[in-house]
Write a structure and sequence with these properties.
By secondary structure, the chain is an alpha+beta fold. It is 25% helix and 36% strand.
């Protein structure tokens, strides 16, 4: 009968053979035969909640969080809205488009702006030479001179009449003549205004050189950008089927968004509702509001025209671009809102990772209404708590790692 040492040697050899040919056996069995590895991993540091609430703590220092590039935000209140998403197109604001036209016949003598140039309100963008404007200016200057002289004569005759030196008949004739010259001066002035001259231009005429009497400056009515130029130097413009439009100037600081909305959704919309506008290739969305809801429905498409207005200070929203508009149907403020990237899923359970002094704590949550990249949290998280929002998959991976059995 073999001795006890022989039995121990045989048992040890059998255990080694089992481990070699069956590496998939449990850690507990390997330890039983003395071959289990005694290691400590990061996963083994995950602490379970003894009360069984489903919470777990992943120890992690600030330096480790920084190295892992885990971003955090503070959960807090925000506005959540139910939105109607519709396609749209950027168009110029109808009140911010100006067709710069001439009101007289002449030729283009100077062009100071070209396509793409920025212009300011009342800036000179072109100059015309016109016999018509020269005649109108000359008529005004003559009427002004005659009126000044007649007003002086009328004042003199009034003084003589008051002194009983002159006759009443002479004074009445002089006063009547002064009224007529004043009327002719006003008519000449109105003719200049109709041709496009401003009050400052008219006031400067008596001191202007004769060579400028035939020239007429063309001013930009608004601040904006030249998007069309329809004439060249020397082009005849004006009446008799000639070109009257010189430039098209557009102010793009505010633009319209034309939307096509199904007739079934029109009852949900009204003027003043907020709108968020997004476009492919633009990183930021624009906020605006509805300014017009058409009462007419297209008989072919069964859609109606809805117009929204947005600010465009950097001119990134170009007319003609296709966009997507999200119209807020109802809005409400909720106490806790977080980015959707903060939520991970383990089985049927939604979780977030809450930052604590020791690291990150797994927290089960119940999500509510979602809007874009934000989601309402109904329960499981309080306002003011800090949560992980980026690279959270690495935290989930730590929870999913198998831990050594005790």
């Amino acid at each position: 009968m073999a001795g006890r040492p022989t039995i121990i040697v045989i048992a040890f050899a059998a255990g080694a053979a089992i481990v070699a040919f069956a590496p998939g056996l449990s850690t507990t069995l390997q330890r039983a035969v003395g071959f289990g590895k005694q290691t400590t991993t990061a996963a083994s540091l995950v602490k379970k909640d003894a009360a069984g609430t489903g919470r777990a703590l992943i120890p992690m220092s600030d330096e480790q969080v920084k190295l892992a590039q885990i971003g955090t935000v503070t959960a807090g209140p925000a506005t959540i809205a139910k939105r109607l998403v519709v396609p749209g197109t950027i168009v110029p604001h109808a009140d911010h488009i100006v067709h710069v036209s001439v009101k007289l016949s002449g030729t283009v003598a100077d062009l100071r702006k070209n396509i793409g140039d920025d212009v300011a309100k009342d800036e000179v963008i072109a100059a015309l030479e016109s016999r018509e404007v020269a005649d109108a200016k000359s008529e005004y200057l003559a009427a002004r001179l005659t009126n000044d002289l007649q007003q002086d004569l009328s004042a003199r005759d009034k003084t003589l009449w008051d002194s009983r030196v002159g006759t009443e008949q002479q004074y009445l004739r002089s006063r009547n003549a002064a009224a007529q010259t004043g009327m002719r001066l006003n008519i000449a002035r109105q003719k200049l205004l109709a041709l496009g001259l401003g009050e400052k231009d008219i006031a400067a005429l008596p001191d202007a050189p004769e060579t400028l009497l035939r020239r007429q400056d063309v001013l930009s009515p608004i601040t904006g950008r030249v998007v069309e130029r329809k004439v060249e130097l020397g082009t005849a413009v004006g009446r008799d089927n000639l070109e009257t439009e010189l430039f098209v100037v557009v102010d793009l600081n505010r633009v319209w968004v034309e939307l096509s909305v199904a007739s079934s959704d029109l009852s949900l919309l009204k003027e003043g509702q907020p709108v968020n506008v997004t476009a492919r290739g633009l990183p930021k969305a624009a906020a605006g509001k509805i300014v017009f809801v058409s009462p007419l429905v297209d008989k072919d498409t069964r859609t109606a025209r809805v117009v929204a207005e947005i600010d465009n200070p950097d001119r990134s929203w170009r007319p003609g671009s296709f966009v997507t508009a999200a119209i807020a149907l109802n809005e409400r403020t909720v106490p806790v809102v977080i980015p959707t990237t903060a939520i991970q899923k383990i089985g049927d359970q939604q979780i977030v990772f809450v930052r604590t002094k020791e690291g990150f704590e797994k927290r089960s949550i119940v999500a509510g209404q979602k809007e874009d990249q934000s989601v309402e949290i109904v329960s499981g998280l309080a306002a003011g708590e800090i949560i992980a929002v980026s690279n959270t998959f690495s935290l989930k991976a730590e929870l999913s790692k198998p831990r050594d059995e005790d």
